[in-house]
Amino acid sequence: MPQKRLATTLLSTLLCAGLAAPSLASDDSLQEAIDYRSGVMNVFNWNLGPMGAMLKEKIPYDQAAFARHAKDLASAAALDVLSGFPDDSVSDDSAAMSEIWLDWDDFAAKYDDLKQASAKLAEVAAGGDKAAIAEQFDATRKTCKACHKQYKE
Amino acid sequence: MPQKRLATTLLSTLLCAGLAAPSLASDDSLQEAIDYRSGVMNVFNWNLGPMGAMLKEKIPYDQAAFARHAKDLASAAALDVLSGFPDDSVSDDSAAMSEIWLDWDDFAAKYDDLKQASAKLAEVAAGGDKAAIAEQFDATRKTCKACHKQYKE
């Protein structure tokens, strides 16, 4: 992906200025960071999938199960996930685009949107009002999409 | 791995009795379960690594960073991780051994040990007493090892 390589070179230059992203020590650390951040995404998916399926009535709605998934999504989103995106950790093994490090503050803000939205979803889901739950689930999914659109290949 | 296959066959027979593990719907669900549970393990490793390195003085001890890692380890351990081990989800893509489903209650108890130990580690780490932290870190690592010894290839 030549565009990615170009962006990486540009990135390396820009990062000399010392932006806010954590730094990377070795190839091992690169792989660990990728494993970590993709692991967190797997946890997100594991919880988002059944919640979406319940709201679309593909599987029976189960209030307790929904609330548990919402709680776990919020817990996973509250992890220090941004530490899994150290400076210049662009790789063919990762869908993370170099634009993340070119606009770190925006990426971090978009990640924070997920954190806030999923925390609210957990709260609403515990309450059990299905219409409110569906609305907040949509709001949460929108934060995923907003970030992926700009920063995920 | 013939031993694994044999155990799987045995397992399928035994599982007709209906043990406590969650059930599996399709090959897609199998892969999702593996992605989820291995994703959680990646989150564990991401946090255990630096804590171990700090205590072994391979990297400088940083109280705030240690406490954050301990908190995140406990948060990840508190997820509904056992749901990622549905009945009969043995696969060559996973290090999870079939013994898990042959002795589900013991597996679940060993997983609970990690949950308790990591919650205590998060508490001790927030307090900042380095000797107590090192002791509780060892206790936590022991819960990982006890489970891996029996249930991880």
Q: How would you briefly describe this protein structure?
A:
Helices cover 71% and strands 0% of the residues of chain A. Chain A is mainly alpha-helical and 153 residues long. The radius of gyration of chain A is 17 Å and the shape is elongated.
Strand segment count of chain A: 0
Tally of individual helices of chain A: 6
Mean pLDDT of chain A: 88
Distance between the termini of chain A: 11 Å
Shape of chain A: elongated
**Overall structural domain count of chain A:** 1
What name goes with the CATH superfamily of chain A? Cytochrome c/b562
The radius of gyration of chain A is 17 Å
Strand proportion of chain A = under 5%
The CATH topology of chain A is: Four Helix Bundle (Hemerythrin (Met), subunit A)
Largest sheet of chain A: none
Description:
- The structure is a homodimer of 153-residue chains.
- Chain A is mostly helical and 153 residues long.
- Chain A has a single domain (2-151), classed as Cytochrome c/b562 (Four Helix Bundle (Hemerythrin (Met), subunit A)).
- Chain A has helices at residues 2-15, 27-55, 63-77, 99-102, 104-127, 130-151.
- In chain A, helix 3 runs antiparallel to helix 5 and helix 5 (104-127) packs antiparallel against helix 6.
- The longest helix of chain A has 29 residues, at 27-55.
- Chain A is elongated, with a radius of gyration of 17 Å.
- Residues 1-19 of chain A have low confidence and may be disordered.
- At the A-B interface, helix 2 and helix 3 of A face helix 2 and helix 3 of B.
